[in-house]
Design goal:
four-stranded parallel beta sheet, two-stranded antiparallel ribbon
Length: 274
């Protein structure tokens, strides 16, 4: 056991980490009592709704990578704003990857019904603002439909962060590669983010793959083809170039950008970072 008399700085770091952990855990609505939840909404009527998927994510990343990443970012936003984190649905509209037997390709209408109920419940409890932290591209359209529905019916203020597209926009100077080699499925970007947020969930026993995307002569045409036609292991791009350091830089840049939006556009008070 560490003695605080011998290494006071280490003990201070440990105490700070425990406080941060308590804050992050408490930010989840599911971890609150009913009284705590209603009191928190009364103080700050703002909630983050993370969504993701459960699908093949290369040979090295967990199937829940999309949701895990969304929750990791949601926690960092909650810590600086006091926003709550809503109960998540752990699957998404993954029909593009249904050719892989491990993928949970949930029908879109289930996601829509879940979000419709969840947003309706939050609004009825007094929530005025929602950040949709969308970790899976297949969910974006459904989230947009729900956001616009409640804007029209209840005047709900909301925004959506399409996480991996958002990260791509802010990755200049951080990643080694560009295009699909950096931002393809389970590639340099996704693997770097996971190495930073959840290093213990990255299977380092598997060689991080490099799958060169095929050229598309008609990128201006929306095309439909099984994902398995493009990759045999669920990875497209250069996962081998990923690092935790790149993930840390990317997460920091993106979190600060989201916070800047909330502070500037929504007039939210943002606590300083570490």
């Amino acid at each position: 056991m560490i003695s605080c008399e011998i290494v006071p700085k280490a003990c201070t770091r440990m105490a700070t980490a425990k406080r941060k952990g308590a804050i992050l855990i408490q930010a989840y609505i599911r971890n609150m009592t009913g009284e705590q939840y209603l009191a928190a909404i009364a103080r700050e009527p703002s909630v983050i709704i993370p969504t993701g998927s459960c699908e093949i994510y290369g040979p090295h990343l967990p199937m829940g990578t999309d949701l895990l990443a969304a929750q990791g970012i949601a926690e960092r936003i909650a810590q600086r704003t006091g926003f709550l984190i809503a109960p998540a649905i752990e699957m998404g509209e993954s029909s593009a990857l249904r050719a892989f037997p491990c993928t949970f390709a949930m029908p879109r209408h289930i996601l829509e019904d879940y979000l419709d109920f969840l947003v309706g419940k939050l609004v009825s409890d007094g929530v005025k603002r929602i950040v949709f932290l969308t970790g899976h591209a297949g969910n974006v359209d459904t989230v947009s439909y729900i956001a616009k529905k409640y804007l029209h019916t209840h005047g709900l203020q909301s925004c959506q962060i399409d996480w991996w597209r958002f990260a791509r926009t802010h990755s200049d100077g951080i990643l080694t590669n560009t295009g699909s080699m950096a931002h393809g499925h389970a590639s340099e970007c996704g693997t770097s983010v996971m190495l930073h947020l959840y290093p213990d969930l990255v299977d380092r026993r598997s060689a991080f793959p490099v799958t060169v995307p095929t050229d598309d002569a008609f990128p201006d045409v929306i095309q439909y083809a099984p994902f398995s036609a493009r990759t045999e292991n669920g990875c497209i791009g250069a996962a081998a170039d990923a690092s935790a350091e790149k993930g840390a830089q990317l997460v920091e840049v993106c979190v600060e950008r989201i916070l800047a939006y909330l502070e500037t556009v929504w007039d939210i008070t943002v606590a300083p970072g570490d």
